[in-house]
């Protein structure tokens, strides 16, 4: 059972660059996308409801901003989209989908930069992290099979970006952001990719400046975190830098089908 996450940086845009052929060949049972940037009724029919896929979308109140979506081979038993806090719920950043015994949480975690890259959104970003952490504390504690997938907008350690020294004061690698990520790991969440791959040089986001991606000057800010109970079923974790169309690339995990 493959679960894939991809910040598509505009679903309509990535559709024009081959999203549906990629989806058909992904061999995934669940594909979670972030930064959809459209309401469901603004998406082309073939994207909103591709054959043999069940879909679910959550849009931000602000047009053309944020938004998350799910493409599932099986209809989820339930999808929750709210944290119960208007400041988060209006931005369309969350889907909590229950598929049998497996829960897939699709999150588009906020960026800490304000309009002028002034770090003004870091408190909001950290508050989102903490609110979701609290929402998932009970299933973590009770041995639930939970995956949290998405764009976390944080590189956890020096190994997770090409130029850590130059970016210590940049949102996405500031100490308070990394500490919040640390808190999840200390609580028992497993970074699935790092569990299997200890070496550096693996990134999921690159600046769109010319030549940056080709030189692999990137950041690993897209993750699949697993509870210990879910991790028991994880057989493989991967990053797919060969998949283009967005400034991010997909990340994935393969699980024993018995997880659900």
Automatic annotation (TrEMBL):
The record marks 222 as: Important for catalytic activity. The record marks 248 as: Interaction with DNA substrate. The record marks 153 as: Transition state stabilizer. The active site is at 108, 151 (proton donor/acceptor), 248 (proton acceptor). The keyword Magnesium applies. It comes from the Bacteria. Its EC number is 3.1.11.2. InterPro entries: AP_endonuc_1, AP_endonuclease_F1_CS, Endo/exonu/phosph_ase_sf, Endo/exonuclease/phosphatase. Residues 4-248 form the Endonuclease/exonuclease/phosphatase domain. One of its GO terms (molecular function) is DNA binding. Keywords: Hydrolase, Magnesium, Manganese, Metal-binding. Its cofactor is Mg(2+); Mn(2+). Mg(2+) binds at residues 7, 35, 151, 153, 247-248. GO terms for biological process: base-excision repair. The keyword Manganese applies. Probably binds two magnesium or manganese ions per subunit. Belongs to the DNA repair enzymes AP/ExoA family. This is Exodeoxyribonuclease III.
